[in-house]
Amino acid sequence: MESIVFYILALFLISGAIGIVSLRESIYSAMSFLLVMVAMAGMFALLHQSFLFLAQILVAVGAVVVLSLLIILSINLKAQNLPNENLTPPKVGFFIMIVSPIVLVLLYAINQTNLTFAPIRQDFGSIEVVGQTLFSQWVLPFEVISILLLSAMVGAVVLSRRRLDSES
Questions:
Q1: Which of 16, 25, 69, 76 is the most exposed place for a label (fewest CB within 10 A)?
Q2: CB 26 within 8 A of CB 72
Q3: How far apart are CA 56 and CA 41, in angstroms?
């Protein structure tokens, strides 16, 4: 049963990632990003990592994606304001021809290596251990990153509003 759920979540992850980069409308790309984040949370649930599952749902889905959707909707991007992308099938085919051998060589090299991993503790990734580590050793970097992300988001809204006001 777990393998069936894993394959379904993997299908959602891959299709959402393809949707992020291939859809022209930014709102649809954001919805694809939402699909990827929810599927990633499902992967964490399959791994029995309750803290990462909850953090993914609360932080990534609940805050980042919803805030991104709010900004996309408030900016109101139109197709005429987007750059002209000349992505033709021959260009895509050429890119696939160049990248495919590199990917195959990397996959072959990964399969040939003898990877051994150290055993992990039973409480690794639990809410208690992550919380103690985050709020004892990483408080300042955590707060700095949150302020940086907030200021970047506010700056993006201000710059886009200024540009839209000058065009009208």
A1: 76
A2: yes
A3: 6
